[in-house]
């Protein structure tokens, strides 16, 4: 330092002293942050009254914070695949592949998500921008509108999807109703209970949000499937398409 006043004001007489001092300050801050994030992780508890998906999400965030601090964590504790809700798809008897239900991710567009929807109904091509915009729009609704998927770990393809959104009413003490939509299982993955597990998951989510019922529309050929999922026929569906 060539400023003549430097020596007058500086407390540290050598660069080593400055370095040691900085290390002491920021080193201890670092250790404090690590204790803090580990403490949050240790105190994490699942709450039956709260929506499952957001709790799983919070858990994943805690794990990310711990890994972000450079600490190591046993793999079985890292993923949400070991919460009871997501475990339900692991290791089912007639299928070796490990599958778990998770929320739709931006990257799923390139994993055959749109192609899968085409097995359900007309779905024109969606540009990356359109996909991202709609994804963000839906994500802003949080637990009130979730799209879930199952990814085949071997092929990296999305093999099942389904969604539920929450309708808020004034009737029934300002009650809420869950609407299940857009359920489809890839033709090669059908008959392995994936559809049923997806319905159970979406139903459980609606219930955890506080819905008093969950409803859906279906074709007559799928009636038996939904009955196996615990649904029953009620009244009829009406529609008016806009030209
Ligand atoms: C309907 C669909 C989602 C079912 O998915 P899936 O993974 O093959 O169904 P699951 O293996 O979970 O079936 C669960 C049970 O329902 C039965 N089931 C499935 N589809 C059925 C049908 N169409 N009719 C009668 N029973 C059916 C299964 O045999 C199974 O019975 P089990 O538990 O006694 O063994 C799937 O066939 C599909 O994606 N179809 C095309 C898209 C579609 O129609 N979506 C529904 C929109 S409303």
From TrEMBL:
InterPro entries reported in the protein's UniProt record: Acyl_CoA_acyltransferase, GNAT_dom, GNPNAT1-like
Locations listed in the record: Endoplasmic reticulum membrane
GO biological process, one term: N-acetylglucosamine metabolic process
Cited PROSITE patterns: GNAT
One annotated Gene Ontology cellular component of this protein: endoplasmic reticulum membrane
Domain N-acetyltransferase residue range list: 99-243
Membrane topology designation: Peripheral membrane protein
EC number: 2.3.1.4
One MF annotation (Gene Ontology) recorded for this entry: glucosamine 6-phosphate N-acetyltransferase activity
Primary subcellular site in the record, as a coarse category: endoplasmic reticulum
Presence of keyword Amino-acid biosynthesis: no
EC primary class: transferase
Pfam families the UniProt entry points to: Acetyltransf_1 (PF00583), Retrotran_gag_2 (PF14223)
Catalysed transformations (reactions): D-glucosamine 6-phosphate + acetyl-CoA = N-acetyl-D-glucosamine 6-phosphate + CoA + H(+)
Pathway connected to this protein: Nucleotide-sugar biosynthesis; UDP-N-acetyl-alpha-D-glucosamine biosynthesis; N-acetyl-alpha-D-glucosamine 1-phosphate from alpha-D-glucosamine 6-phosphate (route I): step 1/2
SUPFAM superfamilies in the cross-refs: Acyl-CoA N-acyltransferases (Nat)
CDD domains named among the record's database cross-references: NAT_SF
Coiled-coil regions listed: none
Keyword terms: Acyltransferase, Endoplasmic reticulum, Membrane, Transferase
Subunit relationships: Homodimer.
Family statement: Belongs to the acetyltransferase family. GNA1 subfamily.
Protein name: Glucosamine 6-phosphate N-acetyltransferase
Species of origin: Chenopodium quinoa (Quinoa)
């Amino acid at each position: 330092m060539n400023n003549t006043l430097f020596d007058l004001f500086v407390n540290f007489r050598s660069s080593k002293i400055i370095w040691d001092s900085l290390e002491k300050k920021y080193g201890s801050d670092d250790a404090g942050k690590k204790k803090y994030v580990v403490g949050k992780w240790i105190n994490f508890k699942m709450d039956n009254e709260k929506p499952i998906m957001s709790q799983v999400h919070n858990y994943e965030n805690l794990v990310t914070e711990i890994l972000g601090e450079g600490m190591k964590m046993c793999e079985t504790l890292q993923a949400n695949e070991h919460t009871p809700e997501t475990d339900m798809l692991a290791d089912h008897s007639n299928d070796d592949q490990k599958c778990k239900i998770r929320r739709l991710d931006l990257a799923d567009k390139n994993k055959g998500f749109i192609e899968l929807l085409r097995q359900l109904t007309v779905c024109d091509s969606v540009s990356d921008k359109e996909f991202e915009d709609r994804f963000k729009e839906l994500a802003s609704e949080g637990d009130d509108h979730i799209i879930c998927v199952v990814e085949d770990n071997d092929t990296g393809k999305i093999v099942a999807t389904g969604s539920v959104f929450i309708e808020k009413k004034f009737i029934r003490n300002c009650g809420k109703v869950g609407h299940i939509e857009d359920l489809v299982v890839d033709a090669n993955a059908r008959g392995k209970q994936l559809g049923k597990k997806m319905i159970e998951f979406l139903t459980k989510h609606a219930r955890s949000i506080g819905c008093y019922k969950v409803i859906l529309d279906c074709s007559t050929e799928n009636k038996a499937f939904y009955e196996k999922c615990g649904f029953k026929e009620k009244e009829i569906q009406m529609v008016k398409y806009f030209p």
